[in-house]
Write a structure and sequence with these properties.
The chain is an alpha+beta fold. Helix content is 30%, strand content 24%. The chain has five helices and eight strands.
Length: 186
């Protein structure tokens, strides 16, 4: 009976604490292991952290869609700032349609030089989801991924050009099949 009462109090305390934490905007929780002094089995509870952990990933400080020049301009709190061409974003979209479901399943994207972004939706506090002018809208671009695209743009372009050459096509070769759309294996 004492153990049941103790567990009920812990569960009620967790519900009250988490409700207060969420109401105050706390989103980070830390897993805390509590062991009863009587030597009974360990119990687990989630408790709000006293202070949010500092994020190790750069966070955006500014984001601008430039339609005429077809670039996404993004600045980060680590001081980095990038102008990422829409074409680069489209050909390296993190979607399953582009990346496949595993290594070696990537689909070479061509004919994307003039692609635009028709809409850019926030995804939580960690990403954006563009709807490209060719209909592609399944890629979720995390801040980390956008930082990678900006930081490694020169290398990514070289890899893309090598893949085009190996396939015997150029950037402007139209894609076969339905433009945009979703992953064909779903």
């Amino acid at each position: 009976l004492w153990l049941l009462h103790k567990r009920r109090r812990i569960a009620e305390s967790f519900q009250q604490t988490s409700a207060r934490g969420w109401a105050q905007g706390a989103t980070l929780f830390q897993l805390v292991r509590g062991v009863l002094k009587s030597g009974l089995e360990p119990i687990f509870a989630l408790t709000p952290m006293a202070e949010p952990r500092p994020t190790l990933e750069p966070q955006p400080t500014a984001l601008t869609v430039h339609e005429a020049s077809r670039v996404l301009e993004i600045s980060f709190d680590d001081g980095a700032a990038f102008r990422i061409p829409f074409e680069l974003m489209r050909i390296y979209s993190p979607s399953a349609e582009v990346q496949g479901h595993g290594p070696g399943q990537e689909v070479l994207q061509t004919g994307k030089r003039g692609v635009g972004i028709d809409e850019l939706k926030p995804v939580g506090r960690y990403a954006v989801q563009p709807r490209f002018s060719d209909g592609h809208d399944t890629g979720i671009f995390s801040w980390r991924y956008l930082h990678h695209l900006g930081r490694d743009a020169a290398d990514l372009w070289q890899q893309y050009e090598a893949r085009l050459k190996a396939a015997g096509v150029d950037r402007d070769t139209p894609m076969g099949g339905k433009p945009g759309g979703s992953c064909a294996s779903h």
